[in-house]
Amino acid sequence: MGHGMEDYIAAENRKIDGYELGLYAIFDGHSGRDVAEYLQGRLFDNILSEPDFWTSPKKAVRKAYEATDDEILKKVVGSRGGSTAVTAILIDQRELIVANAGDSRAVLCRNGKAKQISVDHEPTKEKELVESKGGFVTEMPGSVPRVDGQLAMTRAFGDAKLKEHITSEPDIKVENIDDDTEFIILASDGFWKVMSNQEAYNSIEDMEDAQEAAETLIREALSRKSYGDISCIVVMFH
């Protein structure tokens, strides 16, 4: 990897206005840990403090992502540091709100099938978006595509030097949790670079303990020689 671990995770339960909330996130920092650490302590508070969260959750999440990025650019980061984010808010075990900016991923597992419910914001996929903002995408031999030759994703928090050409705007998905829903997996890109969605499901489909399942997935990714930071959360439904 050539650097220290820059990922942070969040996993907590809260009771708000009579609702039971499960809050889960992976923050994958780059060029330092400061942005990911800030997101761990701040992003969910900003989302849940939006007055229209209960009536228009997608609008609230989008506003909170933007507001948090503004805070980071003003208070936290120099020209380089940044972080991706994938966040999942589980409401009363019935509704799941997933948002992401960057290449960490959320996968919903139901009836034996793994369904990706986040978007990998890769430069080749969003080349037009970058170019519309005045940036460019390069792909050097032996390396991954990068925005302005530097960043391997098109959406992230921080990264002040590139902010004119990237965005922190998330893709957002709302899913109902039914009796057939088995579990969700959140993981950073170091995991998904060596494991497909369905392979991840198959590796833990018979497990009942979420912590054990997450540790199993991490060990499997390491055995496949992943060279990126690896963070993983499994949330099981029984």
Distance between the termini: 37 Å
CATH architecture, please?
A: 4-Layer Sandwich
Helix content: 25-40%
Beta-strand residue percentage: 25-35%
Number of domains: 1
The number of helical runs is 6
Give the C-level CATH assignment. Answer: Alpha Beta
Q: What is the strand tally?
A: 12
Low-confidence stretches: none
What is the approximate shape? globular
Structural class from helices and strands? alpha+beta
Oligomerization category of the chains in this entry: single chain
Alpha-carbon Rg, integer: 17 Å
Q: Could you report the average pLDDT, rounded to the nearest whole number?
A: 93
Specify the biggest β-sheet: 6 strands, antiparallel
**SSE ordering:** EEHHEEEEHEEEEEHHHE
